[in-house]
Amino acid sequence: xxxxxKIRHLPVVEGDKIVGMVTFRDLVSYLLPEICYMAKExx
Length: 43
What we know:
Number of domains: 1
Strand order of the largest sheet: 1-2
Strand content: 25-35%
């Protein structure tokens, strides 16, 4: 959904304060090694 809406940054909130931002690149960097590992296991 975020990619369809072109949302590339998500705020990280603690209570009512923004304490950081998570970017699309952050998510890809975190998930890519796991995706590659799973693909190797499948094939």
